[in-house]
Each structure stands twice: as structure tokens, then as C-alpha cells.
Amino acid sequence: MNPGPPPRDDHGDHLAEVQYTLPTALEAFHDLYVKAYLNYAYTMLGEKEAALAVVRRCFSHLALNWAQVIRGESPEAYAWALLKARVETHLRLAGRSSRMVEAAAFQRTARAALESVRCQFEVMETSLGLYTAIASLPERQYDVIVLLHVLGYPSDRVARIMGVKRDTVRSHRRLARRRIAKKLGLPQSMAADDEKE
Amino acid sequence: MRPSRSIHETLEDAVIPDAFADYDLAASRRQLAHDVADTLMFDSAAARAAGIARRTPAPATSAFPTVHDQAGKDLRALSAHALHGSDAAELLAKLANSRRIDPDGALHFACLLNLAGCTEGAQFWWQFAAGAGNPTAAHCLHLLHLGRGELRDAEHWAGQAVDLAGGTTAPLTRGAGPRARGHWRRPSPALRAAVRRLTVDEDDEFGRVPHPDPCLADRIGELSDAL
Fold first, then answer.
1. Which of chain B's residues have a Cβ under 8 Å away from the Cβ of A181?
2. What would you measure as the largest C-alpha separation in chain B, in angstroms?
3. Are B95 and B87 in contact (CB under 8 A)?
4. How far apart are CA A172 and CA A178, in angstroms?
5. Which H or E run includes B203?
6. Which of A180, A197, B61, B104 sits most deeply, having the most CB atoms within 10 A of its CB?
7. pLDDT tens digits for A98-114?
8. Residue A140 and residue A171 in contact, taking contact as beta carbons nearer than 8 Å
């Protein structure tokens, strides 16, 4: 009697026969960036499970295309673009716009920050106002604000995550802050503050 | 009077804690290896559902093109195509010489900068050309943003491109050449050197933006081999 196909639940055993080892460079890339990607995705999607799923699939794609990815101009830039596109697609399929404003921790801190400002200027602003100001930025500036100010990564790290030069991060930060401050009627930082990092 | 809080301080307070502080990297790597093995062992979702595995795993060398990667290639192909046009040198010369900046020249200059790897400068000149009503420049910006995975910005420029082309996309793709294939190649040293010699202005939004100069237009024929 001929052996039938492997039983349905036997995938684990069957896969054990498949020798697939992650290339060392990919392992290193994974360890360097997976948490940053997860935190970014979580900030945008508002759900841990969704973030885990999106990032997992991104890494599968990177692994399956690794030879191509490392031949390109910047693996980091490639991976970042892939992550961004997949996050946005996920949001659209779920019929939602970015959930950043709903992240409870973000609301708490934004509200506290704006309370002190409100006393100074008698400006009727809410955390929604801060979010709206941030959300109307061009995508690159938006991402710089999220990575620098919501996730708190230093600018060197942000540059590597996005696959851009550190100067690019700084100029986007400067522009984004200027736009947000203008929208909220806040004073601009002194030049010294701006270049603190 | 207490000094007012700056935007710097306001934003500093917005940081949220790491939601994945206890994420297990080793387990994650194992899961990744498993996922890849799984993909390579089953030809399709239907095969997996039926429990029909391949006898041997598929080679891990297949490339699954992404929209963003293809957009980058298309933009480079479009840039090269624009510069191979016979009037590119003339337009570049016009841009450098006239006091009133010509949008077509700006488009071609942006394409040149893009091929030289100077994407911030390219973005500036494309926005200039698009602002002056050039639909191809808007299309280039669409591709630029798409190449970065910036889908919302990409869509904005796609809309602009259609509006500027009078409601049709046909003019943009006509003569754009075959769909770009192949690997990214490093910009030629000659091209990079030529671009590096250009006068640079510091722009608020785009940083260091190169300006065209008459000599560049003269050398376009020589440089086009590098494209």
C-alpha cells in the first residue's frame, strides 16, 4: 500500500525535516529592529496582536527575499517601507484610520502636557488637538515624531530604523515641531534646545 | 512669571513605555525560521490545508516583488528615460540660465538628482515642477512616496498627477518605457561627482538642495552613458 500524504496535524514533525537556517545577517537585523517595528506598528494599529501579526509577516517576507534585500541600497529603508505599507494596508482593510490617539498611555501623557500649557495660554486644546496637529504632517515627519517623541528613541536610532541619514531625521524633527507648535500656538523651542541631541 | 513650556518639553512628555519589553527575541527568531520553512514546504494554502507537502523545500531564492520596491525601480526608469530624451540638455541649460525657472527643466533636473542618489534635492525640484503644473513631476512624487511605503502621501500625488494631466493618466505612462526590472545599481561615480560640484542652497524643508548649472547641461550627453 502506498503511503498517503502526511496527516494534517503532522506539520510540525514534517517541518522538522526541512533545514532552514536564518542567515546570520538576517538574525542580527531581526534582533536590531524587531522591537522597534513592533512598537511602531502597535502605536499605529492600537492592538498588540495586530502588531505582532503584521511584523511577523514582514519578517517572513524579508527572509524569503533576503538575497535581494541585501543587494539593494538600504535593507533598513526597504524593511521600513515594507512595514509602513503593510501597517497602512492593515488599517484600511480594518476600515480604520490610525489608532495612535486611542493608545491610553499616549492620551494620558499628552493630556498632562497640554494641561500645563492651557494654564499659560488659556488655549482650548485637548490631546486630540495635539494628535490632529501631528496627524496632518507629511508621513516622514509624522514617523520621525512617533519614533522620537512617542517611542522615545534617540535620533541616531531613528535614522537607522528609517534607513535615512541622521541629518534627515534632524531636519524632519525641526520642521515637524515648527508645524505642530504653530498649530497649537506654542512658542518655538530655542535653537539650543532643538539641537540638544 | 514662570517660563512657558516649549513644544520641545510638551513633546518630551508624550513618550509611552515599551509595550514589548518582555519580547523573547530567540523565540521570535525560531518562529521566523518555522514560518519560512512552512512557506517553502507547501506550494499553496490549499496544499497546506490538505496536508500535501512538497517532497523537498522550494529554493529560498524566489523574489516576491513588492509595490514599494517596484515603485523605486519605476521611478529610476522614468528618470533615466526623461534624461535620454533629446531635449533634456536644452531644458537643463534653460533652467540654469534663465531668471524665471522653467518647470520642465526642473523636472529633468530632479530626475538627474534622483539618479545620482540625491533624493531630497530631487523631491524639492519635483515639488517645484508639480507646483508649476507639471503632471509628470507629480507622478514622480507619487512613485517616490510609494517607494518609501508612504501610501497616503503617494495617493495625494497620484490625485495631483491626474488633475494636472486634465483627468487622465495616459500622458504619464506614454513613452515611459517598459516596466523596470533588475537590481538597483549604485549611481555612477561620474554622475555623483558632477552633482556634488553643484552649488547648494540650504532649504528649510529639504535641507541641502543643489542648483543646476550650465556646465551640467553640456555634459548631459557624456553623463547619459552613466544613466
1. 7
2. 78
3. no
4. 10
5. strand B200-203
6. A180
7. 555 455 545 554 555 45
8. no
Which DSSP helix (H) or strand (E) runs through A60? Answer: helix A48-64
Q: How far is A166 from chain B (nearest CA, A)?
A: 12
A118's grid cell: 492651557
The answer to whether B183 contacts A72, with C-beta atoms less than 8 Å apart, is yes
Phi, psi (degrees; rounded to nearest 5) at B169: -95, -5
**Single-letter residue type at B227:** L
Cell triple for A146: 512617533
Quick check: A72 and B184 in contact, CB under 8 A?
A: yes
| Residues paired with residue B203 on neighbouring β-strands, in sequence order | B207
Closest CA to A70 of A33, A114, A23: A23
Q: Which residue in this structure is represented by grid cell 539650543?
A: A192
> How much is the ipTM here?
0.82
| pTM score | 0.81
- Residue B214, Cβ neighbours under 10 Å: how many? 12
Q: Sort out which chain A residues have CB atoms less than 8 A from B5's CB and list them.
A: 113, 116-117, 120, 186
Asked if B199 and B164 count as a contact pair (C-beta separation under 8 A), the reply is no
Residue B82 has a pLDDT of 85
CB pairs A-B closer than 8 Å: 210
Contact B152 A71 (CB under 8 A): no
Q: Which of B2, B11, B183 to mutate to test the interface with A (most CBs of A within 10 A)?
A: B11
Q: Which of residues 109-148 of A touch B (CB under 8 A)?
A: 109-110, 112-114, 116-117, 120-121, 130, 138-140, 145, 148
Q: From CA A82, how far away is CA B213, in angstroms rounded? A: 37
